[in-house]
């Protein structure tokens, strides 16, 4: 059967679910991020969630498309192409450091999560997470991407169950709930600062893996559409989570894990499932930061990658016992400021490269047709025509071989 189109719905949803898995870490799944950055501002927080959804959609499309365009194996390959050398180096080291800090914080958080809900020793919960990260990282990238998106449908179902519970329950005085929400303490000055600060931190934690994800996608339109869908779904998760917390803000604001408390209030079984989902989201984020850091260090050497990822996971597990709370408290604000620099860099890069990306998208469509179709337009001089197209494209030879395999299915 001949392949007639680059566009693939399965690829789009795979990319979208992976994006949600990368971005929807433990902070969003637990509700703590939404509470601190948006819900605590009362009614204006709703506009903040809308703004974040738009930012997720735009930047997901841009980063994944740039990664696909340059076929990046790690973030530095993209940074070298879109930024001056000094800025690329600054962002490179900042992203590596952000991934390093988050690696042991996430592994430690996995242990703490299981201890809180099930009474499991924290060292064991962290060990399970570390072993799972290592096992998934040794698989091919399609399986890694599938693992990243594994919990996305589950958390969406859980949030929809919570939404139905609220809609079918007693009426809510939303004015009173918004007023109460505005009394919840926050360290941020206003909703505008909160939106930018939150998204800058999102970029610092996710951009490295997003460039790896984008580089794995040959079809630029799949990268763009999957990014838009992933950004939208991340916004949906954020909106549903915020809505549920607004509805019960008076009872869950003071709890350590707001969404877990909310689900437990509906039924203990839902609380049990939510605890597993939160653990899964921590695991997703752990894969993201460890895998992308190893890809950067290995720089395309597969054998070295296997060694580096093992070292990273072992170090993350060891450091999870120490905590480094002072280091995190010191460096997170700095990473937030660097995130603003990354924010601007990506905007400028997309504006400067958008025409090349779109031209390359059409060029790859032509190459795809040349390789996979018995098209009369290439019958006369197929090899010459394909060489001419390849000379203009950023595609590598393995991509052509990939399409040739598709055409044989």
From TrEMBL:
Any coiled-coil regions, as ranges: none
Protein name: Uncharacterized membrane protein YkvI
Alphabetized UniProt keyword annotations: Membrane, Transmembrane, Transmembrane helix
Domain of life: Bacteria
Segments crossing the lipid bilayer: 45-69, 90-114, 120-139, 146-168, 195-218, 230-249, 269-292, 304-324, 330-351
InterPro entries in alphabetical order: YkvI-like
């Amino acid at each position: 059967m001949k392949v007639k189109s680059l566009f693939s719905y399965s690829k789009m949803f795979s990319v979208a679910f992976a994006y949600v898995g990368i971005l929807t870490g433990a902070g969003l799944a637990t509700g703590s991020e939404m509470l601190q950055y948006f819900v605590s501002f009362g009614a204006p927080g709703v506009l903040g969630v809308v703004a974040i959804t738009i930012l997720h959609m735009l930047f997901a499309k841009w980063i994944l498309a740039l990664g696909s365009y340059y076929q990046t194996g790690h973030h530095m390959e993209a940074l070298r192409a879109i930024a001056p050398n000094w800025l690329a180096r600054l962002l490179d080291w900042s992203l590596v450091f952000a991934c390093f800090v988050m690696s042991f914080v996430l592994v430690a958080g996995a242990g703490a999560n299981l201890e809180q809900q099930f009474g499991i020793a924290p060292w064991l919960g962290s060990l399970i997470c570390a072993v799972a990260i290592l096992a998934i990282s040794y698989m091919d990238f399609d399986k890694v991407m599938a693992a990243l998106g594994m919990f996305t449908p589950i958390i969406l179902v859980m949030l929809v169950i919570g939404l139905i519970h609220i809609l079918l329950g007693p009426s809510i005085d939303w004015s009173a709930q918004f007023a109460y929400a505005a009394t919840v303490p926050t360290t941020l000055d206003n909703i505008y600062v909160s939106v930018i600060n939150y998204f800058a931190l999102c970029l610092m934690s996710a951009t490295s893996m997003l460039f790896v994800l984008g580089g794995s996608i040959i079809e630029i339109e799949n990268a763009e559409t999957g990014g838009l869908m992933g950004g939208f779904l991340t916004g949906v998760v954020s909106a549903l989570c915020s809505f549920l917390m607004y509805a019960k803000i008076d009872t869950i604001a003071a709890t350590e894990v707001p969404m877990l408390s909310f689900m437990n209030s509906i039924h203990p079984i839902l609380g049990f499932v939510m605890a597993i989902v939160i653990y899964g989201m921590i695991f997703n984020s752990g894969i993201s930061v460890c895998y992308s850091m190893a890809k950067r260090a290995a720089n395309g050497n597969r054998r070295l990658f296997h060694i580096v990822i093992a070292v990273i996971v072992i170090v993350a597990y060891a450091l999870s016992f120490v905590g480094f709370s002072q280091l995190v408290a010191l460096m997170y604000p700095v990473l937030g400021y660097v995130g603003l620099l990354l924010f601007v860099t990506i905007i400028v890069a997309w504006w400067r490269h958008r025409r090349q990306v779109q031209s390359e998208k059409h060029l790859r469509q032509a190459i795809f047709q040349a390789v996979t179709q018995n098209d009369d337009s290439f019958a006369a001089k197929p090899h010459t025509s394909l060489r001419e197209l390849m000379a203009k494209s950023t595609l590598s030879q393995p991509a052509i071989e990939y399409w040739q395999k598709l055409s044989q299915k």
